[in-house]
């Protein structure tokens, strides 16, 4: 029989002479490992959905901010064009786009 080390990290807890005697005689070695099972879920099970939801919320707020900036730029562009264009007339109907500063 070839020499084998006991499985896992339990080897320092088994006396060497008892292990070698069991190995030589063929007796089984019973190793009792006291382990506690985790009762709850790991933190990563909760953390991943929270991170994804947070990223989606930040992206949504980013889209809202970009839309507001775009609408603000469009409104300023329209007012500048309306002030420089003056009144627009088509077929005898004149439309004044902005108030003049002289009034």
Give the secondary structure arrangement, pairings included.
Layout: H1 16-25, H2 43-85, E1 87-90, E2 93-96
Antiparallel strand pairs: 1-2
List keywords for this structure.
two-stranded antiparallel sheet, 2 strands, rod-shaped
> Helix/strand-derived class?
mainly alpha
Q: Separation of termini?
A: 111 Å
Rounded to the nearest angstrom, the radius of gyration is 40 Å
Give the helix level as a range of percent: 40-55%
Instruction: Give the uncertain stretches in residue-range form.
Output: none
Average pLDDT number: 78
Dominant shape:
rod-shaped
List the secondary-structure elements in sequence, H or E. HHEE
Strand order of the biggest β-sheet:
1-2
Strand content: 5-15%
Largest sheet, in brief, is: 2 strands, antiparallel
**Count of helix runs:** 2
The overall strand count is: 2
The assembly state of the depicted protein chains is single chain
Tell me what the structure shows.
The chain is mainly alpha-helical and 103 residues long. The chain has two helices and two strands, in the order H-H-E-E. It has helices at 16-25, 43-85; strands at residues 87-90, 93-96. A two-stranded antiparallel sheet has the order 1-2. It is rod-shaped.
Compact overview of the structure:
This protein has two helices and two strands, in the order H-H-E-E. By secondary structure, the protein is mainly α. A two-stranded antiparallel ribbon has the order 1-2.
């Amino acid at each position: 029989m070839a020499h084998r080390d006991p499985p896992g990290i339990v080897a320092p807890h088994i006396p060497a002479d008892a292990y070698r005697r069991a190995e030589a005689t063929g007796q089984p070695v019973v190793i009792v490992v006291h382990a506690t099972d985790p009762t709850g879920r790991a933190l990563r099970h909760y953390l991943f959905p929270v991170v994804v939801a947070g990223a989606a919320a930040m992206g949504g707020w980013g889209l809202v901010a970009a839309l507001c900036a775009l609408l603000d730029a469009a409104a300023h562009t329209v007012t500048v064009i309306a002030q420089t264009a003056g009144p627009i007339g088509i077929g005898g109907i004149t439309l004044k786009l902005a108030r003049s500063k002289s009034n």
